[in-house]
Amino acid sequence: MNVTSATSTPQAQDRNTPAAEAPQTVDYKSFLRLLVAQMKNQDPTSPMESTDYVAQLATFSQVEQTVQTNAKLDQILQASALAQAGSLVGREITSADGKITGKVAEVRLYSDGVMAVLESGDKIPVGPGVVIR
Q1: 131: part of which helix (H) or strand (E)?
Q2: E-strand spans in 1-128?
């Protein structure tokens, strides 16, 4: 069985430019630096309540845990897609428009979907409308 995994399709790689990079996230250390700076620069006549700091820290902790959970879910989904993609090898597939038909020689998993590579060398993105026999 020939199944490969990649981060993005060839088409998506062409679109990746510095302007299209994901925005930077604030990590835990950055958050603590911001919190300390906020404490240093607060108005001494109207200081922030300690409960507000704790609430900010708890909120950041929840966001951090959510991000980690989403990353794990993405890994699970990718593993599931890879397992399902492997079952296509050796089967006949027809493109959604019906123009390309052939036997699947290998399957490539990209971040934006699955690509079936036929014995003829043609490539068919696996998605809605594709017929698998």
Answers
A1: strand 131-132
A2: 3-5, 92-94, 101-110, 113-118, 123-126
Contacts of 108 (CB under 8 A, 6+ apart): 3, 4, 5, 6, 114, 115, 117
25-54 pLDDT per residue, tens: 666 677 778 778 877 887 777 776 778 777
Query: 115 and 30 in contact (C-beta within 8 Å)?
Result: no
Cross-strand bridge partners of residue 109: 5, 114
If we measure between CA atoms, which residue out of 25, 20, 10 comes closest to residue 112? Answer: 10
Looking up tokens 């069985």 gives 1
What DSSP string describes 107-118?
Answer: EEEETTEEEEEE
Res 50: pLDDT: 74
C-alpha–C-alpha distance, residues 109 and 90, integer Å: 16
CA distance 130 to 133: 10
